[in-house]
Amino acid sequence: MSAFSQLLRFVAVGGFSALIDYGSYQGLLALGLWVHAAKALGFVAGTTTAYFLNRKFTFQTTQGGAGRIGGFVLLYGVTFFVNVGVNALFLAVLPESFLKITLAWVIAQGTATAINFVMLRMVIFKQR
């Protein structure tokens, strides 16, 4: 499958996973959870969804394997901190606005998504 086809599928899966992430984040905020904990839990929910859908739909592999799962966990562990850190940074630097939380989330999500696509395609789900 071409890189472009994979990118289109990755974007579709990412969009759905982002809805899971953002919906969880907003729901947890509405319940009064600390903003950074809500962000972290939303990220985990979206990431779990993304792994299973990308493995099957985007990169079309049914094999998990300890190495592949371990690589995915390591990659998403790193991008977890990138995502939460970028979100925290932009919450601190953006001016007060009703869109502040959403803008910080979008910037953090975009940064993590770019890293994830490259690493998933080139390392984790590389055709062997």
Question: How many alpha or pi helices?
Answer: 4
Largest sheet: none
N-to-C span: 13 Å
Beta-strand share of residues: under 5%
Shape: elongated
What is the gyration radius calculated from CA atoms?
Answer: 15 Å
Task: Chart the SSEs and their pairings.
Elements: H1 3-30, H2 35-58, H3 66-93, H4 100-124
Helix pairs in contact: 1-2, 1-4, 2-3, 3-4
Task: Walk me through this protein's architecture.
This protein is mainly alpha-helical and 128 residues long. The chain has one domain. The chain has four helices and no strands. The protein has helices spanning 3-30, 35-58, 66-93, 100-124. It is elongated. The two termini are 13 Å apart.
Could you write a compact summary of the structure shown?
The protein is mainly alpha-helical and 128 residues long. Helix content is 82%, strand content 0%. The two termini are 13 Å apart.
